[in-house]
Amino acid sequence: xxxxxxxxxxxxxxxxxxxxxxxxxxxxxxxxxxxxxxxxxxxxxxxxxxxxxxxxxxxxxxxxxxxxxxxxxxxxxxxxxxxxxxxxxxxxxxxxx
Amino acid sequence: xxxxxxxxxxxxxxxxxxxxxxxxxxxxxxxxxxxxxxxxxxxxxxxxxxxxxxxxxxxxxxxxxxxxxxxxxxxxxxxxxxxxxxxxxxxxxxxxxxxxxxxxxxxxxxxxxxxxxxxxxxxxxxxxxxxxxxxxxxxxxxxxxxxxxxxxxxxxxxxxxxxxxxxxxxxxxxxxxxxxxxxxx
Lengths: 97, 185
Description:
Helix content of chain A: over 70%
Order of helices and strands of chain A: HHH
Radius of gyration of chain A: 16 Å
Largest sheet of chain B: none
Shape of chain B: globular
Structural class of chain B: mainly alpha
CATH topology of chain A: Helix Hairpins
CATH topology of the domain at 1-88 and 135-140 in chain B: Four Helix Bundle (Hemerythrin (Met), subunit A)
Oligomer: heterodimer
CATH class of chain A: Mainly Alpha
Radius of gyration of chain B: 21 Å
Order of helices and strands of chain B: HHHHHHH
Distance between the termini of chain B: 57 Å
Largest sheet of chain A: none
Strand content of chain B: under 5%
Low-confidence stretches of chain A: none
Low-confidence stretches of chain B: none
Structural class of chain A: mainly alpha
Distance between the termini of chain A: 47 Å
Number of strands of chain A: 0
């Protein structure tokens, strides 16, 4: 089932990338990043089955980073919303040259 | 790996949950309303948990449901509702045609790249005999094979993780605090 897992993982990761590039709602872009992390986790678990359970430990760390990222990222989005009254990324262009 | 070694029941459910995951992910990126999108993403995560269980990672499947679907996504929904973004937004919420084309091209290129990577042959000597992990789960339980390396080989990384979480908590509190009053910062 390794090849099939890698297939599903690649498709999910690509959907996440396309979502980040096409959506303008900051929260949805952020959820697309979570989807990409999940796709990578699927790869880790699939390989862990063939090459030993240490791969599952990495899934742990990825989940921790995802949780930390969700906390900080959502706090940034709330601060942004408080400041600009929008989460539309095309309005947030202060650093755009 | 030929699928002939697996029972049909197993293969059927593997594909079923894989296809549900991909279909929910597609629904997730195409929904206008953020709440609908978040719920489709929860569905993807549940299907991924089922895939983890099918791949002999029972404990990872459980924490996928508890941490990802249960905690992280609830925080997302909470923020969506806190900011009152639940309705399909007036932000037309998809970029223009040029962006879509570019995203499609990047997506295709990335997909081709990732598929090319999956063709790479990993030395056979590294692979464990088939069914080793399933056997470990049967003899030691689902948690011991993960807990062992986590608290021995990867102990330093595990400890550093606590610093990461502390930094995240402090960062979230600082960012979430209302501004304006000087003493509030």
